[in-house]
Specification:
Among the domains are: about 100 residues, no CATH class; about 220 residues, Nucleotidyltransferase, domain 5 (2-Layer Sandwich), CATH 3.30.420.590. Helices cover about 50% and strands about 20% of the residues. Helix 2 runs antiparallel to helix 6, helix 5 packs across helix 6 and helix 12 runs antiparallel to helix 13. The strands form six sheets. A six-stranded mixed beta sheet has the order 14-11-4-7-8-15, with helices on both faces. Strands 1-2-3-18 form a four-stranded antiparallel beta sheet. Strands 5-6 form a two-stranded antiparallel sheet. The chain has about 475 residues and is an alpha+beta fold.
């Protein structure tokens, strides 16, 4: 009985089931229903009363055994209760829809979600311009990188073609060695030598132009080449040798008027060869003419002359050069390690004691030391970024004169730097320093000079 009564779990009979029973009871009549079940009206009333008094589920007994009127009355009461709940629910739904009333927890979630979306939109607006700028910068850098690589490749190609068209002849006829095939083969002291045809030669000059003008309108004084080096570079192996030529070396120098007319030849210090020219290309070419006389006719293919003013600019372009002073001179003390910037770099490579006959020898030692330190640092930068090469070339252009084009310089640098080129191999011409009538004069040993040429520009032929 109790199991049958506990239908919806709330002590009430399901409304739909009561409706069906009520209709059936109304149609058949309460008494015939009671008789059919074998109960009297009195028993039915007592059962209903007893049932109601014994359990809160008594409504179920009234539904199953009551007469028609009591059944309808109970049915109506149960339906009314369910309808009121449905009505209340419907009213609440209408209020929710009308006023958008939602539970507090859902409201908090919605508010949090809305705030998060608003913050995201603000961040997007805030990041939008920054992101665009970054994308643009990235695109520009990419274009520059591609352009830089393409430029280096192009310069290499052009430079290789230009470098390859250089001369390939050896020393000229002389009194100390037999030469064959335009000097490409040389026999000296019973040994034969073959010219290294992978070499190119570059005359490097440091020029002091502080004294300018003319000498009685006849001989030009376009400055002096106080520093002279000949670089012999094997662009196949990367081997590099510098021949240091003393500025006071006595050699025949071609003389020209200010207008460029040839006057004659006179033996004098090689540094003065620069003075007899226009201060640019013809001055450099005149120095090369004298250099080739000292080197037995070995062709010097290229030149690069740097004015004193350019030293500090190039020096600072690689963030200074560190050296240990080789002597006490000017503001420098022997043994002191110093990083040179600006005018200090110029002072270190230029200063000399003019009262000492060997002053230029000491100065050349400092110049070679500085060149080594500069070259090593510049090479390190260039290996990390090949754009350093054209940048330095561009920086030097305002203070120098050269027949080495940017494409040639780029080709040479990108070819030999990866091969581990060394800047430590310097050789000096042997000779004797003497005091002349007014200035120091260096007389070089011709035999020793020939041997230097064979060591640098030739390879022994194995028999």
């Amino acid at each position: 009985m109790n199991t049958q009564n506990d239908v919806d779990g709330f002590g009430t009979v399901n409304g739909e089931e009561k409706k069906e029973n009520t209709k059936s009871s109304t149609a058949a009549g309460s008494r015939p229903e009671a008789a059919r079940r074998g109960t009297s009206d009195e028993e039915h009333r007592r059962g209903g009363s007893s049932s109601h008094g014994n359990s809160t589920n008594g409504s179920s007994h009234r539904h199953s055994g009551s007469g028609g009127s009591s059944s309808r009355s109970h049915s109506g009461s149960g339906h009314s209760s369910h309808s009121n709940e449905g009505k209340s629910s419907s009213d609440m739904d209408r209020l929710v829809k009308k006023y958008q009333v939602v539970p507090e927890s859902e409201t908090d979630d919605n508010n949090n979600s809305t705030q998060a979306k608003r913050r995201h939109r603000r961040l997007r607006k805030r990041r939008g311009p920054v992101a665009k700028v970054l994308h643009m910068l990235a695109a520009v850098l990419l274009v520059l990188l591609i352009s830089g690589v393409a430029a280096v490749i192009t310069l290499n190609r052009i430079g290789k073609k230009s470098i390859g068209s250089g001369e390939s002849v050896g020393i000229s006829n002389n009194d100390y060695a037999a030469t064959y095939d335009e000097g490409r083969t040389v026999e000296y002291n019973g040994k034969k030598y073959a010219l290294n045809q992978n070499l190119i030669t570059i005359a490097l000059m440091g020029v002091d132009k502080e004294t300018l003008g003319t000498n009685e309108g006849v001989i030009g004084t376009a400055g002096q080449a106080d520093t002279i080096l000949v670089a012999a570079l094997d662009f196949k192996t990367g081997d590099l040798t510098f021949i240091s030529i003393p500025r006071d070396l006595m050699v025949e120098v071609n003389l020209y008027t200010v207008s460029g007319a040839y006057v004659g030849v006179e033996k004098m210090q090689i540094c003065l060869a620069y003075a007899y020219g226009n201060g640019t290309n013809t001055s450099c070419e005149n120095v090369i003419t004298s250099i080739e006389r000292v080197l037995y006719g070995i062709p010097v293919n290229f030149y690069a002359a740097l004015d004193l003013e350019g030293i500090s600019v190039l020096n600072d372009a690689i963030d200074g050069v560190t050296v240990t002073a080789l002597e006490t001179i000017g503001n420098f003390k022997e043994g002191e390690t110093v990083t040179l910037y600006g005018d200090k770099a110029v002072s270190y490579v230029r200063a000399r004691n003019q009262h000492d006959i060997n002053a230029d020898t000491y100065r050349r030692a400092r110049q070679i030391q500085y060149i080594k330190a500069f070259a090593k640092k510049a090479t390190k930068y260039a290996l990390n970024n090949f754009s350093v090469i054209p940048n330095l070339y561009s920086t030097a252009s305002a203070y120098s004169h050269t027949n080495l084009t940017l494409s040639m310089a780029t080709y040479l640098a990108t070819t030999v730097l990866p091969k581990g080129v060394s800047f430590d191999n310097f050789v000096s011409l042997k000779g004797e320093m003497k005091m002349g009538e007014n200035f120091a004069e260096f007389y070089y040993d011709e035999h020793a000079a020939l041997e230097t040429v064979l060591d640098v520009f030739y390879k022994p032929i194995e028999e």
